[in-house]
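WP5 quarterly update. Target: Glutathione S-transferase. Source organism: Erwinia persicina. Length: 205 aa.
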Amino acid sequence: MHSLTLYGTGLSGHVHRVRLLLSLLGLKADWVEADARVRKSPDFLALNPLGQVPVLVDNGTVISDSNAILLWLVKRYAPDSGWLPQDLAEEVQVHQWLAKAAGEIRYGVASARLIRQFSTAENYASAHDVAMKFLPQLASHLSDRQWLVGQRATLADVACYAYVACAPEGGISLQNWPAIRAWLRQVEALPGFVGLPPLPLPAEG
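Structure tokens (predicted):
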């Protein structure tokens, strides 16, 4: 019998990736709310010395980093599901999008949201610049396809969805990119989809 415990916070896009995939796979995990106080505790730092969420504990195995957790869940519980394609070229493309989720998305739309919503000490001008370079590229990629990789939803879509969907919460409008908005609707229509709680929209920048 599988025993999964997920440590996270409800408003984190990184944590949302994991919660979304768990739901899409029909997996249940015990939830532990890990606010800033918890993340500084010795017990949590023993799980992840960086003090970051998400952290997944699977029958005693501890996995941190949201994208690593996505790979773990698919390879362990749904290896033939298509969330990580069997085709090598498509699998490599998924990993490229996971890298974008940790790179351009994290330091673009995600950073802008952190600054506008949580007053995180990051540079908004830099975040806005990264986002304005990445979003047109994403829109162009999606101009003739429904999904980021191949003909169905993959981990690429799961990893990239949350912070792009929440871009307006960081003052970055998606109105100029209908292909992106169509892709977001495709993800939201997946059976088992769960979203992030909405936050108030700041003035767009």
